[in-house]
Amino acid sequence: MLVAEPARVPPGGTVTLVIHNRRDERLGYGLAYTLERWDGHAWTAVPTQGWKGPALLVEPGGVSAPQEIPVPPTDGWYRVTKTVQAAAESAEDIVGHARLEVAAALLQPRPGEDFVVLAAAAATHAGAPGPSTPWRCPLTLRTP
What we know:
With 144 residues, this protein is mainly β. 0% of the residues lie in helices and 42% in strands. The protein is elongated, with a radius of gyration of 19 Å.
């Protein structure tokens, strides 16, 4: 499983990629990745720096070394893709995806959706905000 953290990044920031190996065999991977931006209808490729590097391994149940990658200066939803290979020679490539949002402060719909959901935490009975009795009230905003 490919994880990108944080899931929301300011424009021009960096995100850290980590591979979690949930298989019973070693996985091999490199530093190469692809980046795509959701244009409202489909994922569109974003040019990235070509990476050549050593072959790396993730042991069964293990986690890869963190890999920091730059994100574009444009707000939007992005998808990072990495390919790993199982240790067995006959095994097919395994493709992992992680989504992230690049945003300064604006809310944007998730890929494939035309709305955003906002959540607010209520104040406690004493009037002070607190985690003891929070509630969520979804508000859906639809774009024209």
